[in-house]
Amino acid sequence: MKDLKFEQKRSLSRQEAADQLTALADALREGGDAELDLGPGTLGLRIPDDLDSELEVEIGGGEIELEIELKWKTAPTRATPPRTESPAEKPKRKKTPAPAGRSRSAKRSTTKAS
């Protein structure tokens, strides 16, 4: 079952069809929250940056049918931002002194060959 379905069928003049497509194009160009005036009502959509599209043309029976389909995922209902630690929350590493008698540089022993 779909969460929401809106369908509208009506006859339009060429100018009205162009106006409707222009309103859709403007909403797509702007992205984010968009409101489309669809005659008797307004449809509000959240439009992301990336969409899937399908263009279909069918010719037959004395008619031409042009379908433009745009599809995108709905936004997650509640996105939890990743947790980042503040400097105060990070555990501090303790510096431990090196054991007595050892140094960082290794001592080299030299022997003379006779």
How big a fraction of the residues is strand? 25-35%
Portion in helices:
10-25%
Sketch the topology as an H/E string, one letter per element.
Answer: HEEEE
Mean pLDDT: 77
- Distance between the amino and carboxyl termini: 94 Å
Helical run tally: 1
The major pleated sheet works out as:
2 strands, antiparallel
Per the principal axes of the C-alpha atoms, what is the gross shape?
globular
Q: Structural class per helix/strand content? A: alpha+beta
Please provide a written account of the structure:
With 114 residues, the protein is of the alpha+beta class. The protein has a domain at 14-71. It is built from 1 helix and 4 strands; from the N terminus they run H-E-E-E-E. It has one helix at residues 14-30; strands spanning 32-37, 42-47, 52-60, 63-71. The strands form 2 sheets. The chain has a two-stranded antiparallel ribbon. A two-stranded antiparallel sheet has the order 3-4. Strand 1 (32-37) and strand 2 form a beta hairpin.
